[in-house]
Amino acid sequence: MFNKNINFSDLAQNLCKSKSLIFVSEVGQGAFKKTYHVRNLNGNDIALKVIMSANGGLRTEREINAMLTCDHPNVARILEISTFDYMGDTFPFLLEDFYGGGTLEDQLKNYTAVLDPDYIYDIGITLIEALTHIWSHNFVHRDIKPANIIFRNDHTPVITDFGLVRDLSATSLTQTFLPQGPGTPLFSSPEQLRNEKAMINWRTDQFSLGITFSICLFGYHPYSQKKSFNDNPLPSVANRNPVPNDFLQTTRKVGLPVIFKMVSPWVVERYPSPKYLLDEWTVQRRK
Amino acid sequence: MPAYHQMGHDSRNLLFEQELSSYEGAILSPVNEDEESMTQFINGMHQRNNEFIFIFDPQLYLPSSCKTKLKEWNYFPNDVETAALADLDWWNNILAELVETGCRVGFDRICSPVFFPARFSTEYYESMIQIGNSLLNMIGSPNSYQTILLPLNELAEYSRVMELASIHTNVRSENLYVIFFSDTVGRRELDNDSELKGAMKFIQLLTQNNFNISVGYSSADAILWKEAGARNCATGKYFNLRRFSLDRWDDEESEGRAISYMIEENLLGLFRDSDIIRLESNSLISLTTMNNPFYPQLRRNIDSGEAWLALSWRFYLYWFSSVINRIENSTTSPEVLIESADENWGIVEDNRIIFEERRNNGNWLRRWLRAVLEFQTPW
């Protein structure tokens, strides 16, 4: 149950006091939690994430479990998990590493800029490796997008926000009758948009990563007919229309035709294994 | 050697024959055999050839109507009448027994159990994959095979094929044991080109996803599955005179065994006594048939009026492994085989050769050819 009348900023500041942390600023809000920038007494920057639903929930449990299971330099790390009592309710919260280099979304400047192919190639390798680690634990992130790719001060990318993670070895939490499954629609795969749970696997993240790269490189979604960020591609994605053929030519021009296959409308047509994807990513670029 | 024996009643002796030694392994069934005798058989075979692979199909397709020796096996559930077949915990108990049985008997591989559902829904396939993944957790890959039971009419539409193949990317075993079935009656060939294209596309897509596909219960149609990328094909029982169907557990003894047939590669069809003589007089007997070690005796038996049923099985099994191996090493191709057979059926028509069975007319081959030429693009 959400606590709509709670002042979460006040809650976070009280929590900081009780933990001897310095409240710096509010960073953002997701579907289930609010994130704050805080600092410990040693001056280390930390992300405080307060779960907006008192007593947490299964999704939060899955998120925490995924982050505790993963151990990779490019996957966000949990420092502490605990609860905080506020206004008669108990709120779970997480302390995670805080990354000061901004998000990939910040670099796109409200989706008006495009990024250099060499840069995308380099961070692509790191991100595929990080996702390979996540996938090796049978997790599907389900919300890969520029806003969830955050940078350390040394400019290395980190995958964050496991709020929608799907643990393939556990029972699904998404009801089959829902018209759409969890995910950010613009970056979602057809199987997410259509809530086809039986098809969700690591290839779902592969699709979202491909969309992320497309938008970073070309400024538009590969399924966009008008090649514009403002064009709505979702009906085409949901209908599984083929990716326009000229998109393949576009990806070839930057030496990354691998993206064309990553965003195939059918799961079975994408790259069959993380290793294969990484190999193709590096080999195709060299060509 | 990508051909497998699909073992049935009274066919185990065929594994020991010198001329039929080019099989990689056999798919075993508990339907007509108890655990003790199968253990002895496997031990004996492994002593002769340790590389021969025994794959066990637990045959729980329709457990509630089982009337065979299957019921005597340890893993066969005693609460099948009341069990919730969608309950993974229930299946996990069966899998544990199945794995124990497998260790005792000495199977090299075990296929995951699947059952016939009331409807082949997405949820059904999802459940079957869960069962297969559980088996994999118990015995690892490559020891486990994910069984996929697919009605061919599910595959007639391109989008459904893509959907089903996508769902099956969640299989964690690297090996798939695929059984296509339809309402095509025994002795007739599969002849719906949309369904055949769908089956071929399904195989191709999953092969491209690094799965090794073995197609069970195949016959001459195995050449289609090989063209699509199947790693192995297993012989159907009695040349698919009896196909894989719901009633096959009730009466293993009778049907399809009374009449002898010879498969002729030149026409990719099955022929009876007098047909073979007509083929000969019209020079339609292939070199492959001439070179089949069972042909001379078979031919002599026809002349003398002696029974040749056992020979016809052996002839077929030799041909099956031979054609699969020739396709595998690229000395022939399904397209060439089908095109050539289709042309030869033209000769049959031009020469007004009348075979014993009215529907033995080669009409299915144009559909097979269409499937081979068109399965890769959406239809």
What do you see in this structure?
The complex is a heterodimer of chains A (287) and B (379). Chain A starts with 7 loop residues before the first helix and ends with a helix. In chain A, the strands form three sheets. In chain A, strands 1-2-3-5-4 form a five-stranded antiparallel beta sheet, with helices on both faces. Chain A is built from ten helices and nine strands. Chain A is α+β, with helices and mostly antiparallel strands and 287 residues long. Chain B has an eight-stranded parallel β-barrel, surrounded by five helices. In chain B, strands 9-10 form a two-stranded antiparallel sheet. The model of chain B is unreliable at 249-256 (pLDDT under 50). Chain B is built from twelve helices and ten strands. Chain A binds chain B through residues 168, 176, 191, 196-199, 201, 203, 240, 266-269, 272-273, 276, and chain B through 122-123, 125-126, 159, 162-163, 165-170, 205-206, 208-210.
